[in-house]
Amino acid sequence: MNHVVWAYSENEGVSNEVASAATDIVKGSPGEVVVVEIAQPRAGIRAPGGRLLLKGPSSADSPGVVAEALYRAAKELQPAAVLVGATRNGRETASRLAAKLRVGCMSEIYNLSSDGQSLLGERNVFAGKVVAKVTCALPAVATVKVGSYPRMESAPGGTRELDVGGVDSPIRVASREKKAVGAVDLKSAKVIVSAGRGVKKKEDLAMLEDLAREMHGALGCSRPLSSDLGWLPEEHHIGLTGVSVKPDLYLAVGISGQLQHTAGMKDSKVVASINTDKDAPMFQASDYGIVGDLYQVVPALRRALSAHG
Amino acid sequence: MRIAVCVKHSVDETELKLDPSGRPQLAGAAGKMSTFDKNAVEEGLRLKAAHTGEVVIFMVGTPASKKTLKEALAMGADRGALVLADPLAVDSLRTADMLAAAIRKGGPFDVVLCSEGSSDTYSGQVPPMLGELLGVPYAGYARKVVVNGQTARIERSLEDSVEILDVPVPFAASVVSEINEPRYPTLIQIMQAGKKPVEEMDGEELAPPGAYRQASVVSMSAQPSTRKHVMIEGSPDEAAAKLVDALMKEGVLSK
Amino acid sequence: MAGLDPAYAAVYTFTVASVVLVAYAVFRHSRLSSTSIGPGRLAGLAKDEARRFTTGDPVFLMHLSIALGVGLSIANSLLDPVIEYAPLLRTLILIFSVPLAVGLAAAFVWRVQVFIKSKRVEKELRSSDSFTSASTLLQGILILAIGLTTSELVLLWLPSLVLVGGTVGVARNLLVAAYYSRPSVNLIGYFDRPVSALKTPFSLGDVMAGKIEPEQVHVGVGKISEFDASQKLSYDSCVEIGACEAACPATASGRPLSPRVLVRKVSLLSRTAGGEQADPLTAVGEDELWSCTSCGACVASCPVSVKHLDLIYDLRRSLVARGKLDKEKSAMLENLAQYQNPYGFKSSTRGNWAEGLGIDTLAKNPRAEYLYWVGCLSSFDQRAQRIARALSKILKQAGVSFAILGPEEMCIGDPARRLGEEGRYQELAYQNIEKLNSYGVKKIIATCPHCYNALRNEYPEFGGRYEVVYHTQLISDLIRDGRVRVPADRIRKITVTLHDACYASRYNNIFDEPRRALDASVSEVREMGRRKEKTFCCGAGGSNYWYKVPQQRSIAGIRTDEAAKTGAKEIATECPFCLSMLDDATKVMNTGMEVKDVAEMVAECLA
Ligand SMILES: Cc1cc2nc3c(=O)[nH]c(=O)nc-3n(C[C@H](O)[C@H](O)[C@H](O)COP(=O)(O)OP(=O)(O)OC[C@H]3O[C@@H](n4cnc5c(N)ncnc54)[C@H](O)[C@@H]3O)c2cc1C
Ligand code: SF4
Ligand code: SF4
Q1: CATH architecture of the domain formed by B2-206
Q2: Tens digits of pLDDT across chain B (255 residues)
Q3: Taking burial as the number of CB atoms within 10 A of a residue's CB, which of A13, A249, C482, C571 is the most buried?
Q4: Cα distances (Å, whole numbers) of residue B14 to A165, B119, B225
């Protein structure tokens, strides 16, 4: 075992986050962070300590194939830890790799650190009510919570290639399609922008739809907007008689916050709301509140988001 | 068609109590069938309805968690297997070890189903590990499963894309909640399910750990659970900028 | 004279035979359905009809005219050979025949109008052609029977046409024997079964005590043959009078349900070949069953005492047993199972509304005179919590000793029972009763009529016997006894209309007390047309609060319109569900009306 930490994600942006997380562990000796790539190098990858390109598999599309390639390479090169971005594919990759290596896999951790003997991190459990500190002796496998680290900015280092041999998958991919925007399942959305009767016209929903898209989230609404006004299909309606959601962020825009509505979003991790009425019950159910006109605050929010890039 | 479905008796996060120092009181905490596991059971039952056969429920848990097994049986599964071990004391890989051994013992199975993740710890690790340990093709996050003879067509729902796969039978898969609407078992049906056969086995005996390194929990503490009620002041632009800052710090703005 | 005429002899013989046939048919159906129709029942019915007579309800008077008209003409036809020896009797018959003939004529016109409406409803419900023609036939026969009876009464005045009258009578009697013997038996047997009565399909207590195995428990009805005899009689007794349909809020809101059509579909299905083995759910839709708010208007309005609700509950139970619940309904039931409240809130937070109000829990003060049963809405819903606070304020001012269960209270179970999950309901009921009995609770106050109804009418069957008082009753008593005093200058100058909650008024005859409480706290109460036991639902009952049903307009909206037409500025409610529904509707419709519980209106006037 050496002190090199591997970072991998099939998603470019997430890969750069994982590289930052890995840098945290090796405490500023970025030379020990190696970003792993499968089959082909990608242009947007930032890898201060260089990249390791695994040749053999034809693509990085299948988590099973990636896990096998990582396994073969890890056997040979013995990294101290393999960190994988906790996307859906990433969770599968890391879990399968851990099973092959017969080590436990730390799941969706943030605040990573290492004492040289083991890997430490924190993760949210019990619907975000509890933070667990978790650990595993090195060499370890872990997935890193998406969005918990800034993306690595530095220029890529050199590339090393390793041929791990061909990896076959018994699974055939018949097709792969982008999900239509807006067709995001509210239940699995990480961010939900939710519109209430504070929105005056159906056309104004476009502004909130744009905001939701810019936050990589989905658009929800209070019942009157779907059931009484018919501005949105029923599946957008959140609450007692609609869907129950638990996103990381719930942004209530022009929603008064009656119990029938809040019953459906009470388990959200962070709640923010915008309302003209400072006494709106929605503020009682929120972490952050802005008293103001949504027609001013929402455009301002979009400007602030784009400023952060 | 023989279908194995894995379920977990999860800690009920709504009823969870924290002690004054903020540690969750897990001893004797209320439990329930993990929310999405109901979708896995439902999908198993649908496959059985379409192809005839048998649905067997597998669970790693303590005797106190039998309630969940009974609920799955009440939904319509035929038999159950309870692997005795404390799911909060073993990590995902050990859980998968035990489930894999129990499924081998009760096998062969054509389909092994799990849900995408449990409602208490939501690691989503056991299903892919199980696929790996059983040595069968694995497809995670399925939103549609149709078995056609010796292959299954599976739609995987990823963050921003959908993959349609042809997977040879036997296979393992995890399902997402949008795949179906699980049926509600009535109280009487749950009582009736008490008569269905459940085999009990000891987890450590069934799957000796061998050489392996466990991932373990060092400590747990409360995340501030009540809402913060921070009112942000200033002009729309100032307030918006402050809000974005705060949300970035919370780590809830995915980029 | 007439005795010598062979034609007369023949008609008379037929008359007697047809009357015997009617008597036989009635007797036979009472036997088949083991329904008691003895003199005691008849006397009871007569008393009840007399009571309803005094209410002067025109629809009831028309139905009474039909029944009495038939009776009178039968009596006359039997007495005909000897009537000339009893001139006084003949005169009496002639006198009576006049108002009855008028009533019958009115009934005839009304029937034709009902017929036209019923065809419109069937069109909206997209009823099958075979149903529509069966329904047309039955309504035709009813209209014919009314017509025949009317003409018979008219013919009484024309002795020369006695043979015509006799023949008409025979024809009508044959129709009565064939079509009206069942409804008669049903009416005599069940006129006094309360709207709140509900069949308990099994006892969970027996299952838990091991007296019966869970496998032996059969819930719901999967085959026509599984209805018990009295239910079959009930459904076969429907003669398409249509009173239920006219009263039904589900029909009025354009939901896919008419109680008349529902009952008739089941009855017609049972008469098809192999009908006994048929599954009623092949004829009845899921949304049709979920549309019902259990308001009881159908049962209460049916002139022949058909019990629609038994059918609806049995079929809902079948749907639940077959796993036919969408996620709203199953989530509600799962929440009840896991958290003992339909919302899914942490059960230990149930008493949080009372924090800082100085209200004891029974655990702290087990000797309190009253237990205040708060219910789920007033425990968790911020708006409805104000009802609980208002009542607490009133009770404290009056010096009433009371306590709450706080976190130890659980849902009463009504949402589970009305949805058709009997087991879950009984589980909650047994747990609640165990708790109440362990504290030795004797008197309970409720602010939710669903809780009140369960505590008062249902829990005794499971071993929970308490003196239950509704908050409007207690408040009105406290005002009467001077324990609560509203100074004249604090009576609010405002016009209010009262929305009676179905489960308080129609189910439990509570309607004068809330009015007395309002009279003491506001300057004017204006009544809506549909009020007291004839109230129109808010749309929440029967578990409807917890799910959506396809509809053309909302039931709460219809009711809000009605309330707005009185010109009242505020709507008084007496049920947290009604409050929530009407509050929502007044806002959606921008009526500017406020909605408040009676307790809040009284509490507002107190210092
Ligand atoms: C049985 C039942 C079930 C129900 N189920 C649900 C359910 O599942 N989900 C649900 O959502 N509702 C449900 N409701 C309805 C619920 O009671 C509320 O009526 C509803 O949630 C209110 O929606 P809203 O907040 O959008 O509208 P409102 O209550 O009208 O609130 C609008 C808010 O917008 C604010 N506002 C106005 N203009 C602006 C502006 N320019 N900028 C910013 N803010 C502004 C106002 O201050 C106000 O707070 C149910 C009701 C009943 C009776
Ligand atoms: S109980 Fe009410 S809603 Fe249900 S069928 Fe009867 S009248 Fe209609
Ligand atoms: S909620 Fe109110 S009006 Fe509606 S059924 Fe119940 S008592 Fe009747």
Answers
A1: 3-Layer(aba) Sandwich (3.40)
A2: 999 999 999 999 888 888 888 888 888 889 999 989 999 999 999 999 999 999 999 999 999 899 999 999 999 999 999 999 988 888 899 999 999 999 999 989 999 999 999 988 888 999 999 999 999 999 999 999 999 999 999 999 887 789 999 999 999 999 998 899 999 999 999 999 999 999 999 999 999 888 888 888 888 887 765 788 999 999 999 999 999 999 988 888 865
A3: C571
A4: 49, 11, 11
Backbone angles phi, psi at A293, to 5 degrees: -80, 125
- What pLDDT sits at residue B17? 87
Cβ–ligand 3 distance for C469 under 6 Å, the answer: no
Contact across the interface for C327 and B32, Cβ inside 8 Å: no
Q: Which domains does chain A have, with CATH numbers?
A: 4-163 (3.40.50.620), 186-307 (3.40.50.1220)
What count of Cα atoms within 13 Å lies in the side-chain half-sphere of residue C34?
4
Residues of A in contact with C381 (CB under 8 A): 259-260
Backbone torsions φ then ψ of A238, nearest 5 degrees: -105, 140
Q: Could you tell me if A277 lies within 8 Å of chain C, comparing CB atoms? A: no
**Smallest Cβ distance to C343: which of A228, A263, A281?**
A263
Chains that touch A (3 or more CB pairs under 8 A): B, C
Residue among B143, A104, A76 at smallest CA distance from A94: A104
Which of B187, B191, B192 to probe by mutation at the C interface, max C CB count within 10 Å? Answer: B187
- Helix (H) / strand (E) containing C168: helix C162-175
Quickly list DSSP for A113-159. Answer: EE-SSEEEEEEEETTTTEEEEEEEESSEEEEE-TTSSPPP-SPP--E
What pLDDT score was predicted for residue C2?
46
- Which residue has a Cα nearest atom 8 of ligand 2? C248
- Which domains, ranges and CATH numbers included, belong to chain C? 6-190 (no CATH), 213-321 (1.10.1060.10), 340-476 (3.40.50), 488-604 (3.40.50)
- C213: tokens are 């195995």
Cβ neighbours of A240 in C, within 8 Å: 328, 343, 546
- CA angle at residue A130 from A126 to A135, to 5 degrees? 100
Record: contact B167-A171, CB cut-off 8 A: yes
Q: Which chain C residues are closer than 8 Å to A261 by Cβ?
A: none
Give the residue, by CA position, lying nearest to ligand 1 atom 39: A198
Dihedral in degrees, nearest 10, Cα atoms A132, A138, A140, A143: 40
- Domain regions of chain B by residue span: 2-206, 225-255
10 Å Cβ neighbour count for A308? 12
CA proximity to A66, closest of A34, A41, A45, A37:
A37
CB–CB contacts below 8 A, A to C: 25
C558 CB under 6 A from ligand 3?
no
Q: Nearest to residue C239, comparing CAs of C306, C174, C168, C164? A: C306
Q: Is C321 on the interface with B (CB under 8 A)?
A: yes
Q: How far apart are CA A241 and CA A261, in angstroms?
A: 9
Please indicate whether, in this complex, the C-beta atoms of C548 and A227 are within 8 angstroms of each other.
yes
Q: Which of C208, C328, C339, C352 to mutate against chain B (most B CBs within 10 Å)?
A: C339
| Reported ipTM | 0.89
Cα C289 to ligand 2 centroid, rounded to whole Å: 10
Kindly tell me if the per-residue pLDDT of A130 is higher than 70: yes
The DSSP secondary-structure symbol of A57 reads: S
Chain C residues touching residue B14 (CB < 8 angstroms)? 338-339, 344-346
DSSP label at residue C109: H
Q: How many whole angstroms separate alpha carbon C241 and alpha carbon A209?
A: 53
Pair A106, A119: CB distance under 8 Å: yes
**Predicted TM-score (pTM) of this structure:** 0.89
Q: What is the C-alpha separation between C509 and C444, in angstroms, rounded? A: 18
Contacts of C344 (CB under 8 A, 6+ apart): A244, A263, B14, C331, C334, C335, C338
